[in-house]
Please model this.
Amino acid sequence: MRGRGIATRATSPWGAKSNTPATSGATWMRNCAVVPALFWTSDADEEPLEAVLKVAAALIALTILVAWIFRSGAGLPFTLALLGVYGVTLRYYSMWHEGLFFFALLFGALLAFAHPQRGALSIAARVVLVLLLLRHAEWAVRSLAYDLRWDVTGSARTAAYIREQGLDRKQLYGTGAALVEVQPYFPRNILDNYRNDGRAYWEWSSRNTWPYVAFTPKSRAEMEQWIARQMADRPEYVVYGGGLLEDEIYASLLFRNPQYRRMASFGGYTYWKDKPNWLISFHVFRRADMPPPSAPRNGAR
Model:
């Protein structure tokens, strides 16, 4: 239930697994995998035959739907929309970008309905469209049901804890892109090592003073050097956000650092389609030679 912290999420009856965005070399294959993903959820434990049948069924269904769109005369605008989607996903693709393909299909279907057709193809396409909408409606209902019972992240409780302990008025360093979730709970930037002209929001550009995560050996080396420089400053307090991009690189210099003590942890699983998929967690540390500001509350573990 909400407010119970990391330990409760780890014992959630739903189970969970981690997710990491694809590297650029695997992007094209991941884009192809979006075809069955519009209908099914992937399972690492499923039998090969089951996986093949799911892919075949999805390909047949989408072939019918696309053929119907082209037959209606909406092929050109649908193709342009699809190319626009690919223009985005070829640069960066992750599971949540599947929705772009879904909306491209809905766009094509709306254009097809503007030119009514008759025959078996039209009937079959409408059946496929109904099944597709039902599947996505099911995923939406399951996600909403999960959100009512469980936390999907620990950012709100982390922000409350930082404010309660007065850490926003002390020397507080941050590590991890997930901290973009914590900043909006404050009227200003609270991280002393996030110096972007006073901006508190995450800067998705080369102006960001934090290292860019490119999922390459070079970017990993830059991240390791960056976190080493931050810890060399010996900040009084550090808040670490994990679960996004490759921010686990920062964890070892905090959890295994004898000069720092963990004060509190908060987190929750992000729900995707029919199951929790990855944990987004926040951990607050203090320098070991400093006394804790007060007793932890707010469900911290």
